[in-house]
Amino acid sequence: MSETERARAAIVTDVAGAVEVRDYDLPRPGPGEFLLAVELCGMCGTDAHIYRGRLASVHFPALLGHEIVGRLAALGEGVTADHAGRPVRVGDRVGVFPALSCGRCYECTVRGRPGSCPDRRPSYGFASPADRPPYLTGGFATHLYASNAGTVFYRTDLAPEVAVLQEPLSVALHGVERAGVRIGSTVVVQGTGAIGLMAVVAARTAGAARIVAVGGPAARLALAAALGADEVVDLDRVPDPATRRTAVFDALGGGADAVIGTAGSPESFAEALGLVADGGVLAELGNFTDRGSIPFNPYADLLKRDITIAGVYGAGPDMQRRYHTALTVLGRGGLPLDQLVSHRMPLSRAREALEALGGGYSLDGSDVVKLAIDPTA
Ligand SMILES: [Zn+2]
Ligand SMILES: [Zn+2]
């Protein structure tokens, strides 16, 4: 990095407010710290929720972005290897694990739930406010200052638009694990956004024999098929839930061993329940925020059918393992994973991207699958 180079970051000034691109000095990383030149940072539903002020722990102005891929720009003393022990040098591409826990306490070591660590510090992309040091602690910026010594990162040779899928895939892996998908399982993936598409990949990797993806629009369904779905059911062409259920049952010869719900409304949860075979599992990922309630009959909907309902909150409190696994799965190749990021947006358009994610899911005349901020654009 040159002496005169400066960093730029897209700062959300207030709840659903203006996003300003601000300038910063490049920090010199201390022992155990590093500086990353961000290549791409995925934008996900959580960013849209924070932007709308729905996460009380984040204060404004805020620098968001936690799906961070970039090249090491400067290494503090002692940073010589990634978390898997592979040597690193300036210029290497890495994916950064955003969450920061102590790694020593009862929750971290015994319960294996570092997400519940009492010494947990705000994750990158969640630290706030952004107008106080250490600055540059989120991915919607030209540089990330990994100011917490011991930040977990992994070297990767994957293209940035593939490596940036680490988080959505780790969420999908959580869902597929909780759904108990195994060799020969029949699976319904409900919803074909980024998480749903990654769930298709995860279910295929786990050994599913037959996968039906229910969603839309057509471009996403084509991608679902290319990623491993055997059949797709288009919401636009089959708008009636009862007819959709018949289509799914026809495709699978009955209900599914596992349903991965990523659609995200109470009504879609009820529909997903009806797609589970007796004895099967519904893993619900989609209702990530409170969107209301539905009628539920414990006898008819649950006991009599001997089914299991698993609540799957993001990549889980033990997400670190899944982050690493996700990178390994993404590295297998052979799939059009580079087509998931549908829109690469410059810092100056971060607000438009946040608005699109929270609303119409359409930008520049095309449907959004996955948005990412490209600070080099
Ligand atoms: Zn995310
Ligand atoms: Zn801990």
Description:
- This protein is an alpha/beta fold.
- The protein folds into two domains: about 5-165 and about 340-375, Medium-chain alcohol dehydrogenases, catalytic domain (Quinone Oxidoreductase, Chain A, domain 1); about 170-310, NAD(P)-binding Rossmann-like Domain (Rossmann fold, 3-Layer(aba) Sandwich), CATH 3.40.50.720.
- The chain is about 25% helix and about 25% strand.
- It contains eleven helices and 17 strands.
- The chain has helices at about 45-50, 105-110, 160-165, 165-180, 195-205, 220-225, 240-250, 265-275, 300-305, 320-330, 350-360, and strands at about 5-10, 20-25, 35-45, 65-75, 95, 145, 155, 185-190, 210-215, 230-235, 255-260, 275-285, 310, 340-345, 360-365, 365, 370-375.
- Strands 3, 4, 5, 6, 7, 14 and 17 form a seven-stranded mixed beta sheet that branches.
- Strand 12, helix 9 (about 300-305) and strand 13 form a beta-alpha-beta unit.
- The longest helix has 13 residues, at about 165-180.
- The radius of gyration is 21 Å and the shape is globular.
- About 50% of the residues are buried.
- The mean pLDDT is about 95.
- One zinc ion (ZN) binds near residues 44, 46, 66, 67 and 167.
Summary tags:
binds zinc ion; 7-stranded mixed sheet; zinc; alpha/beta; 377 residues; 6-stranded parallel sheet; Quinone Oxidoreductase, Chain A, domain 1
